[in-house]
Specification:
about 15% helix; binds zinc ion; four-stranded antiparallel sheet; about 130 residues; alpha+beta
């Protein structure tokens, strides 16, 4: 396990993803803030604010959601397995699109209500369907 003591260095050195083992390099990200694995999208809880490396937690952060920023850019929501910290991170150019889609679709695939009640709910709330 490596430790990067130089806190002022915001460039991220290549590292092996703790979750899937893939070598993560800054190249290809299209940004210096390569803070998550492009393959499984997991991250580590190192920052309190993006890039500040001020968190002493170090827990694995799972990608739990996707949201759309102003301008249509996608961002990933990470939650720390150890302390529950939640953060939002820009997606990188080489992030696994299948993984991103599966995270985005998860709530639709597992709705918290019976899917056959959708039309009934829509009717009750006055939502017009074709
Ligand atoms: Zn990974
Ligand atoms: Zn944490």
């Amino acid at each position: 396990m490596k430790h990067y003591d130089n806190k002022s260095n915001t460039d991220i050195k290549p590292f092996n993803c703790k979750v899937c083992g893939r070598l993560v390099t800054p190249e290809g990200a299209g940004s210096l803030h390569r803070n998550h694995c492009p393959n499984c999208l997991s991250s580590l809880h190192l920052d309190n604010e993006p890039g500040d490396r001020s968190s002493g937690c170090g827990g694995i952060m799972d990608a739990i959601g996707v949201w759309v920023r102003k301008g249509g850019e996608w961002a990933v929501i990470h939650r720390c397995r150890r302390c529950g910290h939640i953060s939002s991170n820009r997606t990188a150019a080489d992030d696994n699109p299948i993984k991103l889609m599966s995270i985005a679709l998860k709530p639709l695939a597992e709705p918290p209500f019976p899917i056959e009640r959708l039309s009934q709910i829509a009717e009750l709330s006055g939502y017009k369907t074709e």
